[in-house]
């Protein structure tokens, strides 16, 4: 399966959108037209990085996938995920209208 990122985005850029509280994210899509959201890669201040090739800079800490419930998908800077995101480090919260809401 291929994942398509918004133009100019990479997994080395620390996230396209700033959600606040140190959380940043980049959506990824199933299609080249970027019309079918598949999930987000996310970054936050943490030492736990997922095991992906990413070159000299740190990559994302984690990702969501197509099984999550998303709204506002037509406007990725205002994306909402209807489940909380939690890292092993304890970083826990919700992405609502593109803003991070800590738990």
Care to describe what's here?
By secondary structure, this protein is mainly β. The chain is 0% helix and 34% strand. The protein contains no helices and nine strands. It has strands at 17-20, 23-29, 37-43, 62-63, 70-71, 80-81, 85-86, 92-96, 99-102. The strands form three sheets. It has a four-stranded antiparallel sheet, with no helix packed on it. A three-stranded antiparallel sheet has the order 7-8-9, with no helix packed on it. A hairpin with a 2-residue loop joins strand 8 and strand 9. The protein is globular, with a radius of gyration of 13 Å. The termini are far apart. 24% of the residues are buried. Residues 51-57 have low confidence and may be disordered.
Q: Tell me the overall shape.
A: globular
Distance between the termini: 33 Å
Number of helical regions: 0
Instruction: Round the Cα radius of gyration to an integer and report it.
Output: 13 Å
Structural class: mainly beta
Mean pLDDT: 85
Helical content (DSSP H or I, runs of 4+) = under 10%
Largest sheet: 4 strands, antiparallel
* Number of extended strands: 9
Order of helices and strands: EEEEEEEEE
- Poorly predicted regions are 51-57
How are the strands of the biggest sheet laid out side by side? 1-2-3-4
Fraction of residues in β-strands: 25-35%
């Amino acid at each position: 399966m291929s994942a398509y990122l918004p133009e100019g985005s990479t997994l080395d850029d620390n996230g396209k959108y700033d959600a606040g509280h140190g959380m940043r994210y980049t959506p990824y899509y199933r299609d080249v037209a970027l019309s079918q959201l598949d999930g987000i890669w996310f970054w936050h201040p943490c030492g736990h990085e997922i095991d992906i090739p990413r070159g000299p800079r740190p990559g994302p800490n984690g990702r969501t996938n197509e099984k999550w419930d998303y709204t506002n998908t037509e406007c990725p800077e205002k994306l909402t995920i209807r489940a909380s995101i939690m890292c092993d480090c304890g970083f826990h919260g919700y992405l609502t209208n593109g803003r991070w809401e800590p738990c």
